[in-house]
Predict the structure of Exostosin GT47 domain-containing protein.
Amino acid sequence: MRAFRRKSSCSLTLLFCLFCIHFSVSSKGGFVEVSAKKTAASESSSSSSNQFGISATAFGTWREVFNAAPSRAEESIKDDISPPIKIYVYNDADVKKLLFPGKETQAYKSGVCGMKMYGSQVHIADFLLKSKELRTENPSDADFFFLPGWPKCMLDAPPNGAGLTDDELAKRLNGVIEKLPYIKKSGGRDHVFVWPSGRGPTLYKNWRCKIPNSIFLTPEGFYTDPYRTLAPYFDPWKDVVLPGFMDGRKDSYLETNKRTSKRTKLASFAGTVPDGQALKGDEKHVKAHPRERLLKLSKKYPDDLLAISGRTPKYAEILGDSKFCIVPRGLSPWTLRTYETFFAGCVPVIISDSVRLPFQEFLDWSLISIKWPEAKIDESLLTYLKSIPDEEIEKIVRRGEQVRCVFAYQADATKCNAFSAIMWALSLKDRNVASTSEWALRDEM
């Protein structure tokens, strides 16, 4: 792999140009246009399926939802072939000792680090360690190098919460990264790290100095930290957005999932409404958080929108009885609710202007969701949703059901699951292409 020579300095200001991804929903007669676009493949075979286990149905084929990806990925998906990459997983005892000394090791062994929304930090590493198709023990054969790490768990150290400080974690990671034998060859460009929370790589305060060119797997494709103008932590040229980890809760959503015609609620939202002061670095959202506006809208139109502030034991039932599930941004643009909706059988209405969603490289989100602007949380939202007939809602839901397996980490590793989708997204990253931040640096020389 060709490496780019460049001067690097942690004090340099990195200029970054974000490629904005717009989700467009075409409309006709006031509702989402989701008519099937028939292909030759769908007409010739109604039982064909791709690598993700997605088969053709009366509501359209997987080809409609998986949009135009580079031909090598599209053909491999169709032919049931694993991503054409090999990954070397660091598994040295010394690395483990540096990363996991002390009580946080017990937290990992107890299984709590692999639970709840940040569980991807554990399960991706476990998947790669067990993978016969993707893993290689010969570093010279590797396309990518993966460092297992549980940064969020090390900071939180559940169940007692007595984890490391940011400084302690940084010191520990500094020691590990300096000893990685293959990272200097490419400047870290082929090294992969998982950052499972909205903080992304800012969990590691020295990332800009130590691993600025490495690949980050993170659920947050937005620049939420106060230093984003210095070096945005998500780069669409090299990084991959992860789906959040749902652990076993998806089963409860499947159990309460009703047919669209049997649902009694038009739209709903139930979740934490953050204190505006907790939202940093974005005055627009501090002044008027979407969740706060949804609560006000619900009070004005209680028959059309159910909005609950805080946790409720009936959460799964509410999703399963709603035609549309409102997915507003939280403290940061991403939220686990996006993925829950596909198992609950409601249409996700995403209200998060800056969010970047998983697998946009090959997944057409406009066919399985609705994107609504944050500035329009008013009666126009409800008017629009009420204008969509049940049969059109059903089509969107069925498309979502076809692809929801790519959001499930618990699936059999040989079938459709989040792991294989993540690896496909990773395989599409061309490590011979410099990131936009590198171009900016060279332009300044």
In short: Residues 256 and 317 are 6 Å apart (CA to CA).
